Amino acid sequence: MKGFLLNVLVIGLFFGGLRANGMPVKKICTAYRVSDTKAPRIDGKLNDPAWQKVPFQDTFVQINPIENMAPTEKTRFKILYDNRNLYVAVMAYDSDPAKIERRLSRRDDVEKSDMLAVELDSYFDRRTAFVFGVNAAGVKYDLIISEDGDRQDKSWDPVWQVKTSLNDSGWVAEMRIPFSQIRFANKAEQTWGFQITRHIFRKQEDDMWQYIPKDAAGMVSYFGLLKGIKGIKMPMHVEILPYAVTNLHTYPAQQGDPFASGRDVEFNAGLDGKIGITSDLTADFTINPDFGQVEADPSQVNLSAYETFFEEKRPFFIEGKNIFQFPLAMGDGDMAQEKIFYSRRIGRRPHYYPSADDGFEADYIDMPEQARILGAAKISGKTQKGWSVGILNALTNREYAQLEFEGRKSKAEVEPLTNYFVARLQKDFNKGNTSVGGIFTATDRKIDKDYLEFLARSAYTGGLDFRHQWDNKTYFLSLKLFGSYVRGSARALQRIQESSAHYFQRPDAGYLHYDSTRTRLTGNGGTFNIGRVGNGRWRFAVGGLWRSPGLELNDLGFLRSADQIMSYIWVGYRINNPVGIFKRVSINSNVWQMTDYGGDRLNVGGNINGGATLMNYWGFYLGINRQQHGFSKSLLRGGPLARTTGNWNIWFHGFTDQRKDNQLGLSVNVHLDDDRISKSYNVSLGWSSKLSTRLNLSVRPFYNYTIENLQYVTTESVNGSDRYIFGRILRHTFGSVVRLNYSPSPVLSVQYYGQPFIATGQYDHFKRITNPRAYGSGRYQEFTPGQIHYDQDNSTYEIDENGDGQTDYSFGLPDFNIKEFRSNLVLRWEYRPGSTLFLVWTQNRSGFENNGRFRMGADFKNLFDQTEADNVFLVKLNYWFSM
Fold first, then answer.
1. pLDDT for the residue numbered 1
2. Coil, strand, or helix at residue 675?
3. pLDDT tens-digit profile of 425-459?
4. What pLDDT score does 637 carry?
């Protein structure tokens, strides 16, 4: 704590004298009214009489590559409106129109093109913006910016119109943006934040109407102003999107298995909808949603004690997710993934698998893949008084596994009926410079079966957050407090206490108060951060977090580990304009320390990292990280704390000119432990190619080679004493991600995703932990040839620990060779605005062998020659109605 306070004092003294840059003068543009009958036709030509009657507005400024300079090409725009729509016309002049990059692609995938965007802060909260963009080929992109630029939600897909055209002077974009697709206050005259940005691909040039410095501590708060819109009202906004889907599932038939005939056909239907409750609040709902067109999660092999985090990909939960965000920590990495609301919990795989211990006899079992979402609804938006509102409720079905035993069929409940609820509120003050908010989540399960009592009946979490910025948003102070309450049977609470997030049963942690009769558990946590985030080359942040041992978020949130107290300090330096051979440069330094509530230091470390883009548009990022020895709560999987070895980690990523048709990237990561045994090497290559204006291909192969001296294998009990068994593992992981995108038009696209994946692990040098807090090899005793014997017939290692010729305990062969192939081919046709046809083919292959041999060529050959395909052919049609 003394060191943390000293860091705060030193940084405060050092940076207190750095003054922020002043905010640029805000420009003002005007929208002109046009009658509904004389509104322009959206054809990209700008020859309608309505356009001829209003003046162009311009005076853009260059942001990249040279800040606050005159653009190399001129840009002008006009704005009209009627009772229902905003119309924007942009003329993007170009001295060489033949070089305008016009790539066809799927919606929102427009980065490698000439493009422009209209950004509207219609809430006028100086924190939120609706973005409507298009590239020169007419492909739309749209997103919501929140937290003054800190967050972007690209999943937002409003229904609007845009057309582009090419002429001798450059290219034209003509937009019609319905007022029903944005949110604004109910006022006689509107004043909105406004911005237009343009990107010239071949020059990597960015131009803005309203100048925003590169080092600005915000984005939306710097927008110019749009005035002149009078007498409009939010139309009654109702959108209905019914869908129908049918799929054919083919897979390897299993002889005798009544649930695996090799062919299943299903038909399903559902409904999505959106209702405008007020001018600034919207209700979204879904009944029996289908996510069959969503890309599969990537293959992974996780040998750690902790759960793998997967990104949300389902449209209902992605859209508007920014308003529900409540992350527990700043920055990147594993801790940044931890949050109070993790939507992947809703509709997850069932928790229970039928067991003979619970009276279920079965020769064959058919398990549901996930808990079906019966329905979900959410209300979200921001009121004219500055209240951000997010309320979500979802109900998942009671799920059953089908069982067959000696010709008789039965069923077993594997997931109870569950209700999930989330409420998020946040209030802005002081022109968006100050915000106060809160979040509450609830998970309630209807448990009727004794064997499901291992699940908590109820789990509630809550949090409060405060953020204040000053001196043109240069400096910030943030504070978060959160807590949890879980209720259930003693069995459920025992399971939570023994989980990897808590490990209350650790024999050396009396302060954790493990109680096998407990039926309730509470916990708390918080974060504190203060720093400088813009308006100058220097940046810094100092902060800390704490999570009490009883903090439990994993019913509706994501938390790897509680029982932590951490402090950190970060300093960064940015050069945003060209200097010598560099276009831009960044350098960062971090130090941190973490302890548990018992006072043991878990880790302490630091790193230096940075990156640069060169004048030829090549670039790189690199860094070096040092972690000192510490202690691990998870190494022994619930056993005592075990000392960890100090290590070095070095990484590098380089990339070629992003303007070229062919682009390359290389990433290298080297991890070296102080024990001079454990090491890891990761190499990833990336290649993307523009094969034509319609066709793009990217390939990203990756390879990992790892030796880990202490890889957990199992825990065995001998005469009431635990034996923690470890081995040295040699791991190889190889795979590749292939993406092919073909877009014959802005509304029709074909996307292919494929990932072959091979992971092997071969164990030797088996040992048991004897003194977990010792350094180096003093922590363990390796089994001698006389103590360990491998029974090849049963694939089992037998341990004669005391050398008396009798087996004291045994464990199975842990070696593995996993082969997987996941692919997804999706045709997406937006046959009318808001209405889409999906044709999907998904294929999966998988194989497993209990050997750790890595033979890349043979393994790939076996993946396709010796494994059978699991195919899903899906047709999904939805139709958008607006009232």
1. 44
2. coil
3. 999 998 889 999 999 999 999 999 999 999 999 99
4. 95
Tell me how many degrees the CA angle 417-419-425 measures, rounded to the nearest 5. 175
Q: Where are the domains of the chain?
A: 31-230, 634-770+810-883
The answer to whether 53 and 99 are in contact (CB under 8 A) is no
CATH class of 31-230: mainly beta
Amino acid sitting at position 157:
D
Q: What is the 3-class SS of 681-748, one letter each residue?
A: EEEEEEEEEECCCCEEEEEEEEEEEEEEEEEEEEEEEECCEEEEEEEEEEEEEEEEEEEEEEEEECCE
Task: For 621-647, give one letter per residue: b (16+ CB within 10 A) or e.
Answer: bebebebebbbebbbbebbbbbbbbbb
Cis ω before 24 (30° cut-off from 0): no
871: CB partners within 8 A, 6+ apart: 248, 249, 250, 251, 841, 842, 843
Q: How far apart are CA 506 and CA 290, in angstroms?
A: 43
Residue 70 CB neighbours (<10 A)? 11
Annotate 578-631 with DSSP letters as a single string. Answer: -BTTEEEEEEEEEEEEEE-TTS-EEEEEEEEEEEEEETTS-EEEEEEEEE--EE
CB-based contact 420:346 (threshold 8 Å): yes
Residues whose CB falls within 8 Å of the CB of residue 484, separated by 6 or more in sequence, listed in order: 459, 460, 461, 462, 521, 522, 523, 524, 550, 551, 552, 553
Q: CA-CA distances (angstroms) from residue 354 to 360, 367, 414?
A: 6, 9, 7
DSSP H/E element including 502: none
- How many Å apart are CA 877 and CA 836, to the nearest integer? 6
Give the span between the Cα atoms of 697 and 742, in whole angstroms. Answer: 9
Query: 381: which 2 tokens?
Result: 């938006």
CA–CA dist 576, 584 (Å, integer): 5
With a cut of 70, list the residues of the chain below it in pLDDT. 1-22, 331-333
Tokens at 488, concatenated:
């259930």
Distance CA 93, CA 25 (A): 26
Q: Which two tokens stand for residue 343?
A: 């939507």
Asked if residues 54 and 46 have their Cβ atoms less than 8 Å apart, the reply is no
Helix/strand/coil (H/E/C) assignment for every residue in 362-418 = CCEEECCCCCCEEEEEEEEEECCCCEEEEEEEEEECCEEEEEEECCEEEEEEEECEE
Tokens matching residue 873? 């052919």
Give CA torsion, residues 63, 66, 72, 76, to 10 deg.
Answer: 20
What is the per-residue burial (b if ≥16 Cβ within 10 Å, else e) of 717-727?
A: eeeeebbbbbb
- pLDDT, tens digit (0-9, with 9 covering 90-100), for 624-643: 999 999 999 999 999 999 99
Residue type, position 92, single letter: A
Rounded (10°) CA dihedral 177, 182, 188, 189: -70
Nearest to 395 by CA among 415, 368, 411, 372: 372
Three-class SS of residue 811? Answer: strand
CB–CB of 185/240 below 8 Å? Answer: no
- Going through 770-865 in order, the beta strands assigned E by DSSP cover 780-782, 788-791, 796-799, 809-812, 816-832, 835-849
SS3 5: helix
Token pair in block for residue 144: 């919501």
